[in-house]
């Protein structure tokens, strides 16, 4: 059972990332992940500095994807990070956002397969196997087994997460789609050969007062345009609406984007009741044992981790 922090400082500097991680560690979070976003500062360089500046918290990308970096490079980066932070490196893997398809021009139709292959590679090398079985080429530094978190919204990625991950992250999943999403994860768990179960980590979007209400709504905006087609239809988001919101986000006009999203979508994505008892009850009903929160800035993070700890304690 873990408490995680998902770094949500836009384009963080080294100082930003280090400050957020130090607060997360001080407040008792178990892990922190930073986004591997190609239009921001490089996540691996940031993680190296975070590893040096912390002592206990697990660090890693949250998330990286199997498209924009060759899997061999990802495995090498993880092993290098382990040298800097022995025993406290994890990796989050996902399909990548719509920018991978739009800006980078890469199809993500095989995301579930590519994610499973990256997980299998990291485990093979972590067990002492070669990078490439065909040639026998090894990784010339040690990679030790590490926890793998997989996040997604699509059915195939959710099922793959249930099948191969150590942790499955439900991030920005609408309340109306939560039970269905968990069912997809369970379908994947049923295919696990060893009979084990991954930790189900839920990251509910809640606003803890007016300070971060605007930030939470921004996450909801991004989640709304990446939601499944049936959800967008339910919310009244047309393809033209989605295209306009994406255009707003590309040019950094977040307020315009927020104004375009129907309130029914915001209400579905943002949980109105942040009472730890209410959230813990919902988490219990979906089988979640871990809780993750966004880290917007060092000043507001202590309250968020304390809130997550209260929810976490009620799940024990």
Q: What can you see in these coordinates?
A:
α1 (14-27) runs parallel beside α14 (301-315), α5 (111-126) packs parallel to α6 and α6 crosses α7 (175-189). This protein is an alpha/beta fold. The model has no long low-confidence stretch (mean pLDDT 93). It has helices at 14-27, 43-53, 71-84, 98-102, 111-126, 155-164, 175-189, 213-225, 229-235, 239-250, 254-260, 263-269, 276-286, 301-315, and strands at residues 3-7, 31-34, 58-61, 91-93, 148-151, 167-171, 199-203, 205-206, 270-271, 290-295. β5, α6 and β6 form a beta-alpha-beta unit. An 8-stranded parallel sheet has the order 3-2-1-10-7-6-5-4. Strands 8-9 form a two-stranded parallel ribbon. 50% of the residues lie in helices and 13% in strands. It has 14 helices and 10 strands.
Topology:
Blueprint: E1 3-7, H1 14-27, E2 31-34, H2 43-53, E3 58-61, H3 71-84, E4 91-93, H4 98-102, H5 111-126, E5 148-151, H6 155-164, E6 167-171, H7 175-189, E7 199-203, E8 205-206, H8 213-225, H9 229-235, H10 239-250, H11 254-260, H12 263-269, E9 270-271, H13 276-286, E10 290-295, H14 301-315
Parallel strand pairs: 1-2, 1-10, 2-3, 4-5, 5-6, 6-7, 7-10, 8-9
Helix pairs in contact: 1-2, 1-14, 5-6, 6-7, 10-11, 13-14
């Amino acid at each position: 059972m873990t408490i995680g922090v998902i770094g949500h400082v836009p384009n963080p500097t080294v100082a930003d990332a280090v400050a957020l991680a130090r607060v997360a560690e001080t407040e008792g979070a178990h892990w922190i992940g930073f986004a591997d976003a190609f239009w921001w500062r490089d996540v691996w360089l940031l993680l190296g500095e975070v590893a040096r500046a912390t002592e206990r918290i697990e660090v890693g990308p949250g998330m990286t994807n199997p498209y924009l970096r060759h899997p061999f490079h990802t495995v090498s980066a993880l092993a290098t990070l382990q040298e800097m932070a022995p025993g406290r490196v994890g990796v989050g893997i996902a399909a990548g956002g719509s920018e991978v398809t739009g800006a980078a021009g890469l199809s993500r139709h095989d995301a579930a397969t590519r994610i499973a292959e990256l997980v299998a590679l990291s485990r093979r090398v972590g067990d002492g196997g070669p990078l490439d079985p065909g040639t026998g080429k090894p990784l010339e530094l040690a990679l030790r087994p590490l926890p793998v978190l997989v996040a997604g919204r699509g059915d195939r990625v959710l099922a793959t997460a249930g099948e191969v991950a150590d942790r499955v992250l439900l991030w920005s999943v609408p309340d109306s789609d939560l039970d269905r999403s968990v069912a997809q994860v369970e379908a994947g768990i049923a295919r696990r050969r060893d009979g084990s179960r991954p930790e189900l980590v839920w990251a509910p979007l809640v606003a803890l007062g007016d300070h971060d209400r605007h930030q939470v709504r921004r996450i909801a905006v991004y989640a709304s345009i990446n939601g499944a087609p049936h959800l967008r239809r339910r919310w009244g988001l047309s393809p033209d609406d989605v295209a306009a919101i994406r255009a707003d986000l590309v040019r950094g006009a977040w307020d315009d984007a927020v104004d375009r999203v129907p309130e029914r979508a915001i209400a579905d994505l943002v949980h109105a009741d942040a009472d730890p008892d209410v959230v813990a009850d919902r988490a219990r009903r979906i089988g979640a044992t871990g809780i993750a929160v966004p880290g917007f800035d060092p000043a507001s993070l202590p309250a968020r981790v304390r809130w997550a700890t209260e929810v976490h304690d009620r799940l024990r």
